[in-house]
Write a structure and sequence with these properties.
The chain is an all-alpha fold. The chain has helices at about 20-35, 40-50, 50-60, 65-85, 90-95, 100-105, 110-140, 150-175, 180-195, 205-215, 235-255, 265-270. It has one domain (about 35-260).
């Protein structure tokens, strides 16, 4: 004989719902614990390890070699790859597992769930990207003290590039079920095409602004020349404003879209 269901809890006896910031913080902590055990963070770490590994293998004291690693590998490939790995599947991946329904049924706004997940992905993305860049500078045989402005510009580019790309990929992952592929198309299709297009169209690429932050401080401009065909780098203030603006606008758009979208597992939709 089955036991009778427990009596419903009266509204007056229910614990109060957490505040928005508290709910976002709880989701962030949960997401970080989940990411540590997941494959996406491991993939991001392995991808980011390519740059320091290359610096260690080459051991070239010429600053141009270090500039090439940063300008041709870290900024156009590793930063967007880390961001798309961590940010594109925050919602639909969990919908496929069936756990997003429980999160969205909790007495907290959906936007708090999205913000918490985005914050966790940003913290993980920064940790991976900064560790990779720091290891690259540490393992290279280049005298980084002699090119200190270039090193500072690289740190700034990673600091701003990760949230900008992450915002774009979280928004794509909120709109499209296959956000990972949409992110890859943007970063390595759309942006790659723009890198060969001379003129102002390059400003539609986040990579242009990342390279604009670093190129003026590079002792040798040769590794950066392919990114500025027919268009000089933008001033630092413009680059900072654009990258921050993209991060904030795309994240705000994801927070607005998520509450009105249904995230169902594929087998539910048929």
């Amino acid at each position: 004989m089955t036991a009778p269901p427990p009596p419903p809890i009266l509204p007056a006896d229910r614990p109060p719902a957490p505040a928005f910031a508290e709910a976002a913080g709880q989701v962030m902590a949960r997401q970080i614990r989940s990411a540590v055990r997941g494959k996406r963070l491991l993939a991001a770490v392995l991808l980011a390890a390519v740059a320091p590994l290359l610096a260690a293998l080459l051991r070239d004291p010429d600053p141009v070699t270090l500039e090439a690693i940063v300008g041709l590998l870290v900024l156009p490939f590793l930063v967007p790859l880390v961001a798309v790995s961590l940010g594109s599947g925050l919602l639909y991946d969990e919908a496929e597992e069936g756990t997003l329904t429980f999160l969205f049924s909790a007495p907290v706004p959906r936007s708090a769930v999205v913000l918490g997940k985005w914050s966790a992905a940003l913290a993980a993305g920064w940790a991976v990207a900064f560790a990779a860049l720091g290891a690259t500078f540490l393992l290279t045989s280049v005298d980084t003290g002699a090119i200190r402005p270039f090193v500072k510009a690289c740190w700034l580019a990673v600091l701003l590039g990760v949230p900008a790309y992450l915002g774009v990929f979280v928004l794509l992952g909120t709109i499209f079920r296959r956000g990972f592929f949409a992110g890859l198309i943007y970063a390595f299709g759309f942006e790659l095409v723009l890198s060969f297009v001379p003129g102002a169209a390059k400003r539609l690429s986040l990579g242009f602004f990342l390279h604009s932050l670093v190129e003026p401080h590079a002792p040798d401009r040769e590794p950066f020349e392919p990114f500025f065909l027919g268009l000089p780098p933008d001033p630092e203030g413009v680059c900072i404003g654009v990258l921050l603006g993209v991060a904030l606008i795309t994240m705000a758009a994801a927070l607005l879209v998520a509450p009105h979208k249904e995230f169902q597992a594929r087998n539910v939709q048929g």
